[in-house]
Amino acid sequence: MTHGFYIAMSYGIAALISLCLITWVWLDGRARSKELAELEASGIRRRSAPKPEGEKA
């Protein structure tokens, strides 16, 4: 076995791990966005969201 094999394997493993992390973060972000949309649809608002007209602060 040559040094090139170990170098190629290390780059391949690093790329695979990076791809897994990117996919995980992307899927988690979609899940959190869906949860936020469900909460806002049920009437729960974020504290930073503007108040609807006629509602006191």
Automatic annotation (TrEMBL):
<dbReference type="GO" id="GO:0015886">
    <property type="term" value="P:heme transport"/>
</dbReference>
<keyword id="KW-0201">Cytochrome c-type biogenesis</keyword>
<keyword id="KW-1133">Transmembrane helix</keyword>
<keyword id="KW-1003">Cell membrane</keyword>
<dbReference type="GO" id="GO:0005886">
    <property type="term" value="C:plasma membrane"/>
</dbReference>
<feature type="transmembrane region" description="Helical">
    <location>
        <begin position="6"/>
        <end position="27"/>
    </location>
</feature>
<keyword id="KW-0997">Cell inner membrane</keyword>
<keyword id="KW-0472">Membrane</keyword>
<dbReference type="InterPro" id="IPR007078">
    <property type="entry name" value="Haem_export_protD_CcmD"/>
</dbReference>
<keyword id="KW-0812">Transmembrane</keyword>
<comment type="function">
    <text>Required for the export of heme to the periplasm for the biogenesis of c-type cytochromes.</text>
</comment>
<dbReference type="Pfam" id="PF04995">
    <property type="entry name" value="CcmD"/>
</dbReference>
<dbReference type="GO" id="GO:0017004">
    <property type="term" value="P:cytochrome complex assembly"/>
</dbReference>
<keyword id="KW-0813">Transport</keyword>
<protein>
    <recommendedName>
        <fullName>Heme exporter protein D</fullName>
    </recommendedName>
</protein>
<comment type="similarity">
    <text>Belongs to the CcmD/CycX/HelD family.</text>
</comment>
